[in-house]
Design a protein that fits this description.
3 domains, about 400 residues, disordered C terminus, 4-stranded antiparallel sheet, alpha+beta, disordered N terminus
Amino acid sequence: MEKIESKNHISVGNRHAEPLFALSGKVVQSDKFWRWGDDNLLPNALSLMSRRSTTHRRIINDKADYIAGKGFSFDEHQPLLRALTEQANGEGDTLRATLFRLAFDKALMGNAFLEVVTDERHSFLSLYHQDSSMCRVARDKQHIILHHNWREFRGEEARQLPLYPLFEKQEDGTLRSMVHYKDYEPMFNHYGVPKYIAGMGVSAIAYKTDCWNNARLDNSFQLSGVMMIDATASDLEAEQIARQAQKHFAGNPGAVMFVVREGKGEDNTRFIPVESNNEGDWSALHDQAISDIVIAHSWFRSLSGLDYSSGFNSERILHEYEVALNTVILAEQEELLSPIKQIITELLGINSSSLEIINRPPTRSKPVYMKVWEARKADGLEYDEQDERQQAFLSEITKYNVTKIN
């Protein structure tokens, strides 16, 4: 059985800050499913980590948004394709919204689950995203088990669906199946592993450095140190002094040490601050962690808003978007959309090959209302104002709405 450690804390840096993620509860033992992580709670740990690491979460959000695209193009002579893109299921979700959730789960956990619903006559098709944290692979490797709380698994509360292309009839008369997307990783057969797996440690560092800065603000940037208390003070006075000192001087990133000293005719109660000049080290550590997070995600800084402080460079953003489009985005889109197109063709009996995701860059070097000949003129290329093909607007000419016309 594959194991991914998730029960141990990821905790670095100051001892006062809480761990990046900490999950408690018994390890569920069952012969009905394959555990996802050593304690079967790795999805919970990954989800909690994404909610506590700022840059890590931003990259996951952005990747999912770019992969989901800006809508769909399809053959206008296929009204069923239009109907499916506008409403993919009975809950009113668009196909784009469903695809975004699949892309988000896959970027976050390395796994995503799509529920397919139809009937025996294939008179309709609904596509539902299922929260990956609620799904586990059954022991027979032919089913997915869904349960609302894997900390306390009860078989009678679980729902089991077959893996596509198998369908099984449900109590409501529908036929249902599950598509399991997973990122390949050697030695792991039942679940995928997120691409950023090597960056979990640096995500923890970025989180801890943020906690350290927050603690300094909470402490009003007061220096921690040693509190000297005169031995002649009463217990009540000593307790009041300790509480006051703790309120004003203690807390992350340091603590106050209390020392009782016998006086010699004078009051020895005083606070001795301990100076610390490690701000530069912490700042460098944070910056390095952020860079490593981006690398671990196979992503780009300008597409995550990390370089906006140094100026908005639209050319760099467009360049990195083009690289991301051809190295990450299109491949992920193909992986997510291919099973959906196959399902549409098999169940609805229509040609779904025209269904494609529309991609647009985050910024444009030319406005979309420019015509082709105007864009070619602006780029110093040959142009013909009378050419019918060059009368089209830039927003109309390509599937990906690329901003430069060659």
